[in-house]
Amino acid sequence: IFLPHLAASLEVEETYIMIKPDGVQRGLVGEIISRFEKKGFKLTGLKLFECPKELAEEHYKDLQSKSFFPNLISYITSGPVVCMAWEGVGVVESARKLIGATNPLNAMPGTIRGDLAVQTGRNVVHGSDSPENGIREIALWFKEGELCKWAPTIDPWLNEIN
Ligand code: GDP
Ligand code: MG
């Protein structure tokens, strides 16, 4: 959005990334944030947050019929999470690749889950699965005024000028 020099055909997306309570408890916050920073995406929102049950249920409403849903809600509300909004061209799919498969045993080495987790029910991080859900989830987890629409000075070194 703040990349005026970017080729017009490239769509800037937003994704909601969340370090789950196990990631916070295990001291993986810096490691996980670092992977998105180093990739070159732009951080636009960041907070440590204790998630109310209702918000967890709304976030995961598509999974409410699953047998693991109650466990999922108690997992996500079991301690503070780190809520993040990241922006960039292709950020939604790229973040999913950086995160790796839902089951950490199937996640490739080099991915966050592949390197740092072993169980689906303790897979340390969430990432939106579509640009539409990126927008929906950021609106769900952040209030107005909590997001920073800034222009990193390194932009021209990450994004080719038209
Ligand atoms: P994601 O998009 O890769 O996070 O996966 P999903 O959207 O399918 O599921 C959301 C979250 O629910 C996962 O990240 C897991 O924390 C949890 N989950 C999904 N499937 C299972 C399961 O079979 N068992 C348990 N315990 N948790 C699951
Ligand atoms: Mg999902």
UniProtKB/TrEMBL annotation:
Keywords for the protein's UniProt record, in alphabetical order: ATP-binding, Kinase, Nucleotide-binding, Transferase
Active site: 126
Amino-acid positions noted as binding ATP in the UniProt annotation, renumbered to this chain: 20, 68, 96, 102, 113, 123
Keyword Nucleotide-binding included in the entry's annotation: yes
Reactions performed catalytically: a 2'-deoxyribonucleoside 5'-diphosphate + ATP = a 2'-deoxyribonucleoside 5'-triphosphate + ADP; a ribonucleoside 5'-diphosphate + ATP = a ribonucleoside 5'-triphosphate + ADP
Cofactors: Mg(2+)
MF (Gene Ontology): ATP binding; nucleoside diphosphate kinase activity
Listed EC numbers: 2.7.4.6
Gene Ontology annotations of biological process type: response to hydrogen peroxide
Assigned protein family: Belongs to the NDK family.
Record's function text: Major role in the synthesis of nucleoside triphosphates other than ATP. The ATP gamma phosphate is transferred to the NDP beta phosphate via a ping-pong mechanism, using a phosphorylated active-site intermediate.
Protein name: Nucleoside diphosphate kinase
Naturally occurring in which organism (per UniProt): Salvia divinorum
Gene transcribed to yield this protein: NDPK2
